[in-house]
Amino acid sequence: MQNRGTAPATSAASAGSSFAELPETASQGPLRIEYRWVNQQSDAQTDDPPIAVFLHEGLGSIAMWRDWPQTLCERLGMRGLVYSRPGYGLSTPRAPDEKWPVDFMTAQARDILPALLDALGIDQRQRRRMWVIGHSDGGSIALLYAALYPDALAGAVVIAPHVFVEDISVQSIAQTKQLYETTDLRAKLARYHADVDSAFYGWNDIWLDPAFRPWSIVDALVPIRRPLLAIQGHDDNYGTMAQIDTIAARVAHARLVKLDACGHSPHRDAPAALNDAIAAFVSAQR
């Protein structure tokens, strides 16, 4: 596959970031991935404390998480691994003519995350103690990783995940496109991405493609056997409670938390309630 180039190594959003070179995978060519350790006190080969891997939303990046991974890792007593997926932040951008496939989230879970873990020397013993924490599209990727690699994690926390496409999601994403093209939203997002159009249109185009409308990972959830916490805000304008209720119907041991006065981003809308829910759940598994 063609190497699409590398993101610039310096940016206001890149302070503290490092870069991992990933080899070609079944779904993508060689990649340069921006990543950052949180609470990293020693070499990544050590087993103590466990690692929490953070998977960002459809328009996210390392910088857009702000300080929430740090706050949560301190609460959990874990190290954190935060990274920008291809097309986002300072990672390899999407080529202008590249359109993401319908199964792009599966490719991220199946190929990109394991390749990054390999590149960082995170072995199977460490992965068995690792928690995967994902938001929105990142929550879907976390679910897929937990299903594809059920022995390579300790548990998963998914926040406002998508397991099928709802009308409310498509409507809100269409509205976001209008805002991106007519307001200062593009300029605001450009603070967090070296190639903001790569980040925005990669996500927006596939979600608005009619071919994506039947997308569903509902049946793919069945193999999940590690502890699973699914969290959704009652005021989420990108998805309804049907998303996490469906997860519970497929994964009998899943625990659900439904947050009042909370929209699509609980780590911004209700961080205290979110952190309390995650800390209680993780503590109960130890």
UniProtKB/TrEMBL annotation:
The keyword Hydrolase applies. This is Alpha/beta hydrolase. It comes from the Bacteria. GO terms for cellular component: membrane. Keywords: Hydrolase. GO terms for molecular function: hydrolase activity. PANTHER family: HYDROLASE, PUTATIVE (AFU_ORTHOLOGUE AFUA_2G14860)-RELATED (PTHR43798:SF33), MONOACYLGLYCEROL LIPASE (PTHR43798). It comes from Paraburkholderia monticola. Residues 53-277 form the AB hydrolase-1 domain. Residues 1-20 have a biased composition (Low complexity). Residues 1-23 are annotated as: Disordered.
